[in-house]
Amino acid sequence: MRNRVPAVAAALVVALVACACGARGPSGGGYGDTGEITYWMWDSGQLPAYQQCANDFEATHPDIDVTIEQMGWDNYWGRLLTAFVSDAAPDVFVDHTSKYGDYVSRGLIEPLDGLVEESGIDLGQYVDGTARLWVGPDGRRYGLPKDFDAVGLFYNTEMAAAAGVTPAQMQELTWNPADGGTYEDVIARLTVDRNGVRGDEPGFDRNAVATYGIGLSDDLGAGAGQTQWSMYAAATGWSHTDRELWGTRFNYDDPRFQDTISWWRGLIEKGFMPPLEQTIGGSLSQQLQAGRYAMVTEGSWNINTFAQLGGISLATAPTPIGPSGERATMSNSLADSISTGSPNKGAAWEWVRYLASPECQSVVGQGGVVLPAIASEVPAAEARLAEHGYDITAFTRQVRDGTTVLYPVAENAADVDSVMKNAMERVMSFAADPSSLTEVNAEVNALFTSG
């Protein structure tokens, strides 16, 4: 088993615990209302929209200058950890629900409760559930939602038409872990071998597939499975943990979860989804564009990426209706955190408040990259994408229908993901049976009971 925490990262974690990082914390001053603040983010696609927000903000706050630094996801968190250790963290940074619990436990980010109350911010303006995601394990608020996401299907319309699959069918797919329902029927129909035989026709060769009905990424989703398997498992009534947020008992030993993973892996055995070893080095969008996949499950944050693919006609559809009688999609929201070591926390708060306001979120919505968290701004974002011929109601309808489940925010998230990443890779590569996840679940739950 690979180390859960790389050696360098482990040393930095020890340093974070040992050093007086955040010495200028909540009671340590640093509430200047003017000056220059640094803002870190990882998504290059969102950079233009947020730079516009910064320009607009500076126009109304002439005594505050915002410097944005963008780096890729793979480098972002390591650099942030190093910056905390060296007391050089940005004043404000884009935070993720899977990360901020660790920052809370180490006192590295500011609670915002008092500031939110003093500013009279209406938490009810945000898409349902997104504001709750940013209440930490201590019951205090550490962020205001800036966007929200959901998971849906992206499919090749020409391939669907050739297979006789209609848009109406795609909107009302059903699924169950026993036979896959009409969802698996469509996946099989969209799968074509190198002789032109479809997956639901006699003579189909599962060992010589030209186009897989559904794609697979080498990222299996670790403990959350947000875009990979969460929408199936949740549609059985299963949940990741014993509580909606900050649970301490995971449910990977639940038969509903293991049956879901067995069905999912079974798509590989049937030849409808590629083996894990064939997915290395190719993104879902690239494989979809190349005609290797007819359909993929992906997050709404990649809408713009798929919309810009050349030489292919795509449409979206919601996740299938499961045994619970409803469809399901995992919803998450990013927020911006203020470092406790910031010397300009007052100015940093003004920026954070603006990022979560209708003024900035309308700009973000018009950018057509992510969906704004303020509910009143969502229709404008839908209209903006519709101008480019892209229907995103497959994502937004789940919010309106109340079929979203929240991202499984928990402490020890990095360790949970490390355990589950290795376990899921073993299962999906057929080195272990889905029943092995019962023992894995015990290992995960031990993280919450040891010392």
Automatic annotation (TrEMBL):
Give the UniProt keywords, A-Z. Answer: Signal, Transport
**Which family does the similarity line name?**
Belongs to the bacterial solute-binding protein 1 family.
KW Signal (keyword) present: yes
Q: What is this protein called?
A: ABC transporter substrate-binding protein
Q: Gene3D superfamilies this protein is in?
A: Periplasmic binding protein-like II
Primary place of residence?
other
Read off the Pfam families from this record.
SBP_bac_1
Q: Which SUPFAM superfamilies match?
A: Periplasmic binding protein-like II
Which InterPro entries does this one have?
Answer: Bact_solute-bd_prot1, SBP
Compartments where located: Cell envelope
- Looking at the record's lineage, which domain of life comes first? Bacteria
Question: Where in the sequence is the signal peptide annotated?
Answer: 1-20
